[in-house]
Predict the 3D structure of the following.
Amino acid sequence: MKKLSSRCHFVLFSVFFCLFLVSSCKDSERSFNKERVERPEFVFLVHGGAGVFHPDQLPEGREQEYLDAVNEALSIGEEILTNGGSALDAVEKAIIFLEDQPFLNAGKGAVFTAEGKNELDASIMDGQTMNAGAVGGVTTIKNPITAARKVMDQSPHVFLVGSGAEQFAASVGCEIVDPSHFFTQERFDALMRVQEANPIPEDNRGTVGAVALDRYGNLAAGTSTGGMTNKRFGRVGDSPIIGAGTYADNNGCAVSGTGHGEFFIRYAVAYDLNAKLKYQVTSLETAANEIIHHKLKEAGGSGGLIAIDKDGNYTMPFNTGGMIRGVVTPKYRKVEVY
Ligand code: ASP
């Protein structure tokens, strides 16, 4: 009898012990899930360039046009990401829309070279595969960001320039236009002003970019621009240079920059931010502020950037009068210029 009761105790003890184990497993599963839930389902940022944004210097209604364009670009990315689409698609599709806006300095509405031409640069990078594509100095590709994506997806190369890029783009089905497609009177007048009053600097605001984190944890970044007003024929800025104006790494962050390209190239701004995150104990915001407000500013480089890290933190610092920019997550949306 005594033996039976001690066996009963043992069985009861075992049952309770098992129940305890199961419940503590559930708890740790819960906290694991909680960690995953803490990263937003998606984060999407867009910029429309940094520069001088004094209200007196903007044509009437322009600020609203900027805000509306960024809002629309955010919605394009938001729809793709909400439906389980990729960070890469969100970036490309939003930038196509921005390139088609005549008041932004990318695609139609790009600034002019000193010779009165539009030479366009763009790049895109996939943080999951570390693949990238870029085009530079192109004059006939309607949407350079799509050509950059095709260089990444359909060629063994990363960066194609000039007529080689244009021929490749035509061969893979990109829309080709006459160079006059990119003409806008406003940008041409800006060139005339700069050339009459040299060396008064003209504002180039309007470069466009996007960065995204999708629900699978993949990061992507893209940037597209006409460069800088009165630039020398053949000059290529930071926007199509991987590591300068654009970078994405699933183990670090996704970055798109805007500003005085020569400085972004020399300071490898986009890669520098990613490297700081990976190799230093710092936050995305601290690292980005250090680059934009100290390193670049002290060197005389004006501009800003948008960035998202692998945990969904984001930042949008600039050291200029303003930067057209916006963010959307499943819970939050904000669009600003100043
Ligand atoms: N970064 C671009 C360039 O230097 C211009 C800009 O972002 O405003 O080509």
